[in-house]
Design goal:
CATH topology of the largest domain: Rossmann fold
CATH class of the largest domain: Alpha Beta
Number of strands: 9
Shape: globular
Structural class: alpha/beta
CATH architecture of the largest domain: 3-Layer(aba) Sandwich
Distance between the termini: 45 Å
Helix content: 25-40%
Number of helices: 13
Order of helices and strands: HEHEHEHEHHHHHHHEHEEEHE
CATH superfamily of the largest domain: Vaccinia Virus protein VP39
Strand order of the largest sheet: 3-2-1-4-5-9-8
């Protein structure tokens, strides 16, 4: 298939390094014929995403975290062209099959969204009309025990969204020193017993290394103790996943590159699922939407050299009660939107 988006002058296959690679997995089967769970994923706040992105014919939207392609399908149904990125080859394989009917209106690429600027410019040198970042882990990744994200089903200590990455959760748990483990559990997992958990892990691995998710979850649970319905190892698993996939680092890089990729008047929509992500997005949008910056030691405010966006949502948009009831994983979602300023706006 020749990939060439409507309104974009660049042919995908003519751009070096942008060939769509052959995918090892298609739909619901694995090499060797072993069946795996289907990529069923309910997109969070789909109507709100469409409302703020305003996709329509003649527009191009970059979905930088394609996942189950639920948002992507709705964007295409509205008539826009789509650039879809994901670092997970399983997600990309599913999306390729799910979105096949849209033909040349779709370009898919396996890549981390932190690298979207170069890819986006090669496909659409004039920029895109919208960018979507739906952060966190997909339902498929959580539900597939073999990926190692789940703390309720036995699987390898992996947690890599891109299986080609070198560092997995087993290496972090079994090789990192106690101080570093405590740091990531506190900073990324906001686990109050981070030091106690790190100490317990180090003592246990000296006897026998951790090999599977349930083994680690059991060790953490004995230290943290159960409070309410949330599994006691949830925060530690979150910290490990974010460390393995460099999630905060990649989010920062993706946000920094977004304004350069957007056309004037183009919008960026970000959905976060925990406070660290939301805080970073909030601060970034604020830093780019203030005409002036001021500090106590300055005699007067100065022009903000990074001023290039307007806030569309002053406060985060959250899912309605009906959506949370139907999809409990949406309960912690927050959506924020900013728009690139048009030339000549005062």
């Amino acid at each position: 298939m020749t990939w060439c988006l409507p309104g974009c002058s660049t042919n995908l296959l003519a751009a070096p390094g942008l060939e769509t690679p052959p995918l090892a997995m298609r739909g619901d089967e694995r090499m060797g014929g072993e069946r795996v769970s289907s990529f069923d994923h309910v997109p969070v706040m789909p109507e709100e995403v469409i409302h703020y992105l305003e996709p329509r014919p003649g527009k191009t939207v970059l979905d930088s975290t394609l996942g189950g392609a639920g948002h992507a399908a709705k964007i295409l149904q509205a008539g826009a062209a789509l650039i879809g990125l994901d670092q997970d080859p399983n997600a990309l394989s599913h999306a390729e099959e799910r979105l096949e009917e849209y033909g040349d209106a779709v370009v898919l690429k396996q890549i981390n969204f932190s690298e979207m600027l170069n890819v986006g410019r090669m496909i659409c040198p004039e920029g895109v009309d919208g960018i979507l970042m739906d952060l966190g882990v997909s339902s498929h990744q959580l539900d597939c025990a073999d990926r190692g994200f789940s703390l309720r089903a036995q699987g390898p200590l992996d947690m890599r969204m891109n299986p080609c990455e070198e560092v997995d959760a087993a290496e972090v748990v079994n090789e990192w020193d106690e101080v570093e483990l405590a740091r990531i559990f506190w900073e990324l997992g906001e686990e109050r017993k981070s030091r106690a958990v790190a100490g317990a892990i180090v003592r246990r691995r000296a006897i026998k290394p951790f090999r599977d998710t349930l083994d680690l979850a059991d060790c953490v649970s004995r230290v943290v103790g159960r409070r309410g319905r949330i599994h006691p190892a949830t925060r530690v698993f979150q910290a490990l996943r974010m460390t393995v996939n460099r999630e905060m680092e990649c989010l920062e890089a993706a946000l920094e590159s977004a304004p350069a990729l957007l056309k004037p008047g183009g919008r960026i929509v970000v959905i976060t699922f925990h406070s660290l992500e939301d805080r970073m997005v909030k601060r970034f949008f604020k830093s780019r939407s203030q005409p002036e910056i001021d500090r106590p030691e300055w005699p007067a405010a100065k022009s903000n050299p990074d001023f290039c966006m307007d806030l569309v949502t002053r406060r985060p948009v959250i899912p309605g009660s009906d959506e949370v009831k139907a999809n409990p994983r949406a309960r912690s979602a927050k959506l924020r939107v900013a728009e690139k300023r048009k030339v000549g706006n005062s």
